[in-house]
Specification:
Elements (H helix, E strand, L loop, with lengths): L3 H14 L5 E4 L12 E8 L4 E2 L7 E14 L3 H21 L9 E4 L4 E4 L7 E14 L5
Parallel strand pairs: 1-2
Antiparallel strand pairs: 2-4, 3-4, 4-7, 5-7, 6-7
GO molecular function, one term: transferase activity
Protein name: Putative acyl-CoA transferases/carnitine dehydratase
Keywords: Transferase
């Protein structure tokens, strides 16, 4: 079954895998070849320090920061931008459709990513961005 954090990260991975087209990876290095439909990489991030209720009664509350990296590679600038925006909207649509990950979390917050364009000589440019996502949840103890 795994810890609550692992259950949440698995549910988030499954949610991203529901998007048609891109390759979805978790904690992976950037592939040497980007598939035509792009890549989404979930980075587990940092759960931070737990907050406990006064007197130590009750669970531990987390605001777990994770990152969703989106990468598109295409030679045509307009196509690249359009594909990136479509993928960004698809990710937001999935996150908004299940903002509690099936009841595993209280909710999530995120914003639009900063966009980066990278170009290697001899290859089509990469357009990417990282969505910083904060997941709010409770566990029975700091380790569970």
């Amino acid at each position: 079954m795994g810890s609550k954090a692992e259950q949440i990260l698995q549910a988030l991975t499954a949610l991203l895998q529901a998007i048609s087209g891109p390759t979805v990876l978790r904690n992976a290095a950037l592939p040497t070849r980007i598939p035509p439909d792009g890549v989404i990489i979930l980075r587990d991030g940092d759960p931070g320090e737990p907050e406990q209720s006064l007197g130590g009664v009750g669970g531990c509350y987390y605001q777990h920061s994770v990152e969703i990296e989106i990468i598109i590679q295409h030679g045509d600038a307009d196509q690249r931008q359009s594909l990136f925006d479509d993928l960004l909207l698809a990710v937001a649509g999935e996150l908004d459709a299940d903002s509690t990950l099936g009841g595993l979390i209280y909710g999530m917050t995120y914003g639009r990513p900063a966009i980066q364009l990278e170009h290697e000589e001899g290859a089509a440019p990469l357009l990417g961005g990282v969505i910083e996502l904060t997941l709010d949840y409770e566990t029975a103890s700091p380790i569970s």
